[in-house]
Write a structure and sequence with these properties.
homodimer, mainly alpha, 9 helices, DNA-binding
Chain lengths: 206, 206
DNA sequence: TCAGAATGTTGACACTGAAAACATTCTAGG
DNA sequence: CCTAGAATGTTTTCAGTGTCAACATTCTGA
């Protein structure tokens, strides 16, 4: 059905657009992404994308959703029986995701997307990403190593810190850090978790 | 010299542009700011701004610098003899600045500005803003309440957390928080500081 | 006074997002 | 199998943008 003769119908414009978009934002940043350039990339007219996405904003929303869903799949890279260590590792994974997909991360958390709250799938996938961190916090609480607070409070604190580290890393605010960058990040995340612990000493002698 | 007759020369295009820009980003967001609109606002031709700013990016840089310089003037709103309490208050002031000038804050830390590192005045004013938090951390260290780490490490951790809270607050990621928002923010900041303290108990019974 | 610097303008170019009107192809119901 | 209507695509057009070049006016110091 799909031979190599020039076709009127492209085949799969939506996913071709998304793929081209991911490539372009990786190379040129989300700031200069244009629908017309994407259309050119995949060889359709400049208005063809509008048959599949209401507008540019909606395409950005889909890209962001994909990112959140990836985030939601994160697991601690070095699983640890110690709940608070596992939480640190999840935080690290989160930061590494951001550093590996900086432009997509900026899209997810920046203000490029307009009227974010009008897109339920975006809210939902974003919430799911948060739940990952949250679940590890809960494990820590069940293990009894964290202070007596609402799990949501700790989870939000952890998420916020990790997001701060990720954002600033991406934008090269830590460029002058000397030494192993992974160590630096881990120290920053640990400092956050330290604030949650009944006995911070457990962390210090690690 | 400057009567009310129509003048060929405007008088002070640069500061008029900056003022108009601050107004526009406050009302419509930094994302849709356009030089041409600013030119219209102040009643000059669309290319007049280019006599005073190399390009749009440079105007954004100046706006961001102004923001950083304001940040650098922050003091704890409720000064406390307890060093760690003062640090918390400075963090709060920082967050409140962000919430009062959300679009300017996004401009300062977002990726709207291109080639940030090519603007020494931006790097410098940004560094000065960081120094405020840093100085309060040092006070805490001198008071002996914080753990034994490089001051820079703690300062950066505090800055990162505060930035994370500010960013997410601005973008309404905490919209579902119930109860007093100021209390929520203060709890988040405190949790961060808690991680620095030799005796977190000091904070708990506060 | 008057030349040159500073500041302003008009007009143009190459982009962009988006809508309207129209063309082609696919697909389901008779 | 045929055919109407839905899907998908195209061309054209509009309004908006950043920025440059060429030209006009005004200010300022020697």
């Amino acid at each position: 059905m799909s031979d190599n003769k020039t076709q009127y119908h492209h085949g799969d414009v939506p996913s071709a657009l998304l793929q081209a978009a991911l490539l372009r934002i990786k190379n040129e940043g989300v700031e200069k992404l244009s629908l017309r350039a994407l259309a050119r990339d995949i060889g359709v007219s400049q208005t063809a994308p509008y048959r599949h996405f209401k507008d540019k904003n909606q395409l950005l929303v889909v890209l962001a959703c994909k990112g959140f869903r990836e985030l939601a799949c994160l697991k601690a890279q070095q699983p640890s029986p110690l709940a608070f260590m596992a939480l640190i590792e999840v935080g690290m994974s989160y930061i590494y995701f951001a550093m590996e997909h900086p432009e997509q991360y900026k899209l997810m958390f920046g203000s490029k997307i307009k009227h974010r709250r009008d897109y339920p799938e975006l809210m939902e996938s974003g919430g799911a990403a948060f739940q990952v961190i949250s679940s590890y916090v809960v494990k820590g609480m069940e293990a009894g190593v964290f202070i007596d607070k609402e799990p949501e409070v700790l989870a939000r604190s952890c998420w916020t810190t990790v997001h701060g580290i990720a954002s600033l890393s991406i934008d090269d605010y830590f460029e002058h850090i000397t030494g192993n960058f992974d160590d630096f990040l881990r120290e920053q995340v640990s400092l956050c978790i330290r604030g949650f612990m009944k006995e911070p000493g457990l962390l210090d002698k690690q």
